[in-house]
Design brief:
The protein is α+β, with helices and mostly antiparallel strands. It contains three helices and five strands, in the order H-E-E-H-E-H-E-E. It has a five-stranded mixed β-sheet. InterPro entries: Endoribo_LPSP/chorism_mut-like (IPR013813), RutC-like_sf (IPR035959).
């Protein structure tokens, strides 16, 4: 059976360092068999925040890439919390926030970047319920922020 780390490698992906909080909160919290991961903003491989708004200069493709980067940060937080991503039983819930203009209506297409990555890396355990919400702004000017709830062993 292929491990999560092997799948990441096969996909040419590398987890970033688990980001530290930028305010008064914890990056993750375990309660029973659930792992709650705080919102992860979109950052590229160098740690630069991916900024802008969908519908005002940020393309669908760039928004999807931002969502993928946020999902990689979610996985990095999960690994920091659990020590091993093999402990993830199921991604239960994903909430994606997309900074956009009032006219932009393709929020689900953007968050698909994260959803597709989680399924590619975790297989069926990456399938989840979710919301994709448009907002006027996000912390640090990022274009995407995603949080998650995972069932763990």
């Amino acid at each position: 059976m292929t491990t999560v780390d092997q799948r990441l490698s096969e996909l040419g992906l590398k987890l970033p360092e688990a980001p530290q909080p930028v305010a008064n909160y914890v990056p993750f919290l375990i309660s029973g068999d659930q792992l709650f991961i705080s919102g992860q903003v979109a950052k590229d491989a160098t740690g630069r925040v991916l900024t802008g708004k969908l519908g005002a200069g940020v393309s669908i493709e760039d928004g999807q890439e931002a969502a993928r980067q946020s999902a990689l940060s979610l996985l990095a937080q999960a690994k920091a919390a659990l020590g091993d991503l093999e402990r993830v039983v199921q991604v239960l819930r994903l909430t994606g926030f997309v900074a956009s203009t009032p006219e932009f209506v393709d929020h689900p297409k953007i968050i698909n970047g994260a959803s597709d990555l989680l399924v590619a890396v975790l297989g069926d355990a990456g399938r989840h319920t979710r919301s994709a919400v448009g907002v006027s702004s996000l912390p640090l000017g990022t274009c995407v922020e995603i949080d998650a709830i995972l069932k763990i062993r």
